[in-house]
Amino acid sequence: MGERVITLTGINPRMVGYVMAQTRTEDFRLDDGRALRLTYAEPDGVTRGGLVVLHEARGITDAVRGMVAGLAAEGWLVVVPHLYRGESGSAEVGHDEARDKVGELSGKSVLAATDIAFAWLSGRKVNLDRIGVIGLEFGGAVAMVVAARRIIGAAVTIAGGGILEPLADGLPALVEIAGDLTVPWLGLYREQGDDITAEQVEKLREAASTAKIATDVVRFPFESAGAFEAWQRALNWFDAHLR
């Protein structure tokens, strides 16, 4: 299979991992007129289920592509909804432009985008209980919003910011919605290297523990071994809950 790629934030997606999967991008339209640009990758063999990958603030970066490759190599049908509209869609952008694009989003718009991605998977015979969502950094925060507002199989947040203060005016702070989780949710946070502090993560853990659903929050070391362990935890979470 080649080298294993670790696709967690801060780790080069080609360092230790999977052969990069071929991705395709299409403009997908529902019968009711809703439309969105999607990027997706298909597994080589039997499809185990579907995963929606939510991109980081800078768009579909190499880290996001690495995550897509790793998940597809594990047998998942993977789709990335382009959360940013416009001609360029969610192509990778710089930090300044990313802040502007995030500021234009709302809870309603990101939920609408993921709903279209769920419909795309359903059209490929993947039932909702076999669909999960996983997000990286900004996308990790969005994944938790989805996990508190939709009924699917499972959700994973990787380094999702906006714990105490929302990332955009139209998005909630994560501690405010953690108790409303309706989907088994795993939060993965690095021990160092982020603006996210241990105290913030602990407050999120406490808030999530009040939800009437399985939750877990894990902090992992920045080095490759820690990132690989976190990646395995994400895979195991989906294995346990998407059946």
Automatic annotation (TrEMBL):
Molecular-function GO terms, alphabetical: hydrolase activity
InterPro entries: AB_hydrolase_fold (IPR029058), Dienelactn_hydro (IPR002925), Dienelactone_hydrolase-like (IPR051049)
Domain Dienelactone hydrolase: 40-232
Stored Pfam families: DLH (PF01738)
The protein's name in its UniProt record: Carboxymethylenebutenolidase
